[in-house]
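Contributing new complexes? Match this layout with zinc ion.
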Amino acid sequence: MSRQYADIIIDIVHGAVDRPFQYRVPRELEGRLSVGERVKVPFGKGNTLRDGYIIGFSGEPSCDPDKIKEIREAEEDGTAAPVQLIRMAAWMKERYGSTMIQALKTVLPMRRRVKPAQKRYLQLAVSREACLEQLELCRKKKQKARVRLLEAFLEDPVLPYGMVVQKLRVPSSSFQIFLEQGLCRIRTEEEYRNPVHGPAGESRRLVLTEEQEAAVSGLLEVWKGDRRPCLLYGITGSGKTEVYMELIRRVTAEGRQAIVLIPEISLTWQTVMRFYREFGEEVSILHSRMSAGEKYDQIERARRGEVKIMIGPRSALFTPFPHLGLVIVDEEHDTAYKNETAPRYHAVDAAIERCRLAGGMAVLGSATPSASSYYRAQNGEYHFFQMKTRAREESFLPTVEIVDLREELQAGNRSIFSRKLTERMRETLERGEQILLFLNRRGYAGFLSCRSCGNVIKCPHCDVSLKLHRDGKLHCHYCGHEEPAPRTCPACGSRYIAGFGTGTQKVEEMAGKLFPEASILRMDMDTTSRKGSHDAILSAFANGKADILIGTQMIVKGHDFPKVTLVGILAADLSLYSGGYEAGERTFELLTQAAGRAGRDKLPGYVVIQSYAPDNYSVEAAASQDYEGFYWQEILYRKLLHYPPVYRMLSVLVTSRDEEAAGERAKEICGLADGKEGLEVIGPAKAPVSKVKDIYRYMLYVKSEEEEPLWALKQEIDGLGWDGQVLYQFDLE
Ligand code: ADP
Ligand code: ZN
Ligand code: ZN
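Output block (do not edit by hand):
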């Protein structure tokens, strides 16, 4: 096919230009451009130079050839995305409602090369523990530059020299002493740097258990066969990671590449290290805290075949591997896989689509699969593999006890710790073992409200209540807005204005009063905002530097703390009231994961779940670690109320700076759906968070037994055409 003309998507986020435009390929670029390439083209009346992406070629002009403009320049770094990624973008645009350019930007590798790879590095030459000790020392001596450097080392043991001197503003005189002491050294390197550092190739290959063997051979059969998606349902500690690694070994041996998605890299550093020990330099990672240049380097290494395995959160799915064979989605139920900005894709569905396009295989793994994945596995749409026992024989499942908080209150105990939990805490501390206390919240005392008029202080930009922190200021957890806490109610002037609820800081205080001799660490968004502090808290706790760790969601994911034998869940049912048909599922997941933190090693573990709704099925099933029990109840509820995965549901989010326009549009869409047979409409209503960063949000839901009418409706909505944005989420099965 002749490639005289190129179809180009212009880099402007605007509905009206969201279609390809044809441009002529100039003679000097003939044969040198490919799909996915970024080019500069004249656009509009003034022929302003714009960036654009080539999405296809043709030999025929689509209109008068004299009117077709010419491509000006090509960015010749040879990083054209494989056609597959362009197809991914088209799929996302259709399914989730975004402009093509938003979708392209999501899937295409970062191609603007920020800087050539740095040549000199400072490398930490001692253990993390030694680094932490030095950090404490420098903090005490108030040596600020050194503190900055050491904190950066905790984040990444190899730092570009230029970054240290310029960005961190650490003069070489400050680290001269570290160089002399051998705490760090200077290293030079020409090639792309690898963000994973550590002892490679020290893996001791484990002998797989029978269950692991069975899962591996089943998965390999699928690999040789139809390559439909697979669900690996294995209880916590059943050794899913070993199964993934074995599968990756086989698939990469055939010259294909693998992507491992994890919910958030900082939370599962231990997993990354396990892969690195096994696969060494063939592994790389991507994560949100890397700079654009660092990400570019890794994507480049993957494209050139230096890396065969990419580990990262959802965006790692778009690694431009030439022969992708396998995508593993670990903890597939995790809500972090939902992208919250346009295109609002779900990484599990996107992974399946990416594999379909690449002729590869998707493997979803979880100890508590999402109801919809389990449903598909039951229907035979996915292959299903199960592991029911823990891989290491010596570890036990914990003993779980539920405490009814209503009874506590009746018995006159108004503390946040029930009598049972207090007793278990005392025993655990006496045995010299560790405790995790889990709370589904953060901030000192939640929100501020007026006891006279009931006014709750909200963020001026977002429709959420501001949270009172210990610094005496009110913070918005959505947009970061802060303001001083008022002394009187801004609405009525009353002085009776006070905090509500319990936060992690409060729990810390109370635990300190109850057990003054225990040392306590707290981990939440507030204590981990400083660079490196996240890891510092975790390694301090893992090294036994504290008896109790208090935290939010962050502490329940993926960590192995062998000396933790008691997990206390302070208010199990908070997430039951979060609204949405998935509230029960969220609660069950959270509780099971939290409970799974207890007794991961040789010591027997205890879990105390405190709840106001102890007979709720999600709480009960979590307590008995009974996923199937939960699942069948949940599916029954979804069937009765026509929710996914039994019914298909289209969620429509209408956003606009103009509140009235958004509301009107939402109503109009409901009108479109209302008359149609087989469609059930819920809404429209303000979204649960009805304003974010001054953009108003309305929601509506349309349910249907079949998929087809929902797609037809979406086409109609797209046809309405206006300036605000309409986003979709399809829960098709
Ligand atoms: P999961 O991801 O299913 O929760 P992991 O893969 O983290 O489980 O494994 C749990 C623990 O069991 C890890 O410490 C791992 O090293 C160990 N393990 C896994 N497979 C085996 C095996 N075949 N033999 C011995 N120990 C194993
Ligand atoms: Zn008031
Ligand atoms: Zn805000």
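Reviewers usually confirm one structural detail per submission. For this one: The CA atoms of residues 555 and 579 lie 23 Å apart.
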